[in-house]
Amino acid sequence: MLFRASGKMEEAGFCAHFQMPLTKRKKIALAVAFAFLLVAAFLLARRFSPNSDASRRQQLLQLIPTESSAVIFLDLDQFRNSPFLAKLYSWAPLAGEDAEYAQFVRDTGFSYERDLKKLVVAISNNGTTTNLLAIADGKFDRKKIETFLNHGGQPGQQGRRKVFHLNATSHDKPLSLRFLSDERIAITDSENLPAALASATVESGHGEWNAHYERLAGTPLFAVFRQDPSMQNAFNSATPGALRSPQLSALLNQLQWISIAGKPEADQLRVVAEGECLSEPATSQLRDFLQGIVMLAQNGLNDPKLRKQMNPDEREAYLEILKSAEIQKIDRGEWKSVRVVLAVTPRFLDMARTSAIVAPATDTSSPPETPKKNAASSKAKAQRKK
Questions:
Q1: Tally of domains in the chain
Q2: Shared-domain flag, residues 190 and 259
Q3: CATH of the domain at 286
Q4: Lowest mean pLDDT segment, chosen from 52-66, 92-106, 264-278, 365-379
Q5: pLDDT at position 61, please?
Q6: Which of 135, 117, 128, 129 is nearest to 71 (CA)?
Q7: Is 112 in the same domain as 174?
Q8: For residues 170 and 156, what is the distance between their CA atoms, to the nearest angstrom?
Q9: Domain of 90, in residue numbers
Q10: For 135, which of 66, 90, 355, 381 is 20 to 30 Å away at the CA?
């Protein structure tokens, strides 16, 4: 008994001797793990909270009809906090408020420069018709705005909500407005706004769009285009004449998705354009073609004759953009992409403003008649000599 008791005491002492340090380590490890989980839970809750910026952005994008051909998104809240916006305003100052807009601000209490937060615009091409749906989040004085809209006529009723008809059109179709909440409005040229919103509830159609939205997360300005004939024609007509090329048009027409995004970085705007399709040869050819254009442009700007003719600041502004250009091909399994990255610098904005100010006006006056008379007289004298 004594031996067994002694043995137990020794065992207890032995265990206590070695368990004390182990318990402290466990406590420290548990404390670190708990702190890590707490931080992770806080970040996740903040990201996916209904009131979080990421959640509001996602909610807004999920209201877009899945059959849209183009989606344009702008987060003005994020842009307002960037030094680039201040630079942009200094480059292109806002025009002075006209009397009509000033009266609109007084009547509605809404100023888009101050109160608009987020905006998403969807364009849908259905055969020969084009439909537009815009949804905006902002600080709205609903009573004031509804009173202002009532002056234009009696609102209609679609479902359980009022629909206000605006004195404006899109593609020769009248626009209408509806409050979705006190902080969200929808504007469309569709005759049935509830039906346009209901078309966004088709879950199966959101997968492709969401894949592109996720790649553009954190970007305050972007446009995503799903190719169709009308989009192809729009891209071809928007391409500057100097850059038009049958080969480039043919390659762009093979892209099924095109996205263009802009993100402020200090006083610059980082522009990222990406085209996506299923064809490996098409993306390889497009990458090589765009790299060739950049190389030719750099060689042209370094040409001695052109350097003498160009304004040095203008030349440096173009070279800055070309040097910032990154062109690469991205393999995402079945899908292949070509990405182009450019930096719009303050020097380029200054150059663009200067060029716009000093652009010479075209002289449309008729040439003087005196040279014609002199030319006719000289011709008569030459005939007499003969």
A1: 2
A2: no
A3: 3.10.28
A4: 365-379
A5: 92
A6: 135
A7: yes
A8: 19
A9: 46-203+221-226
A10: 90
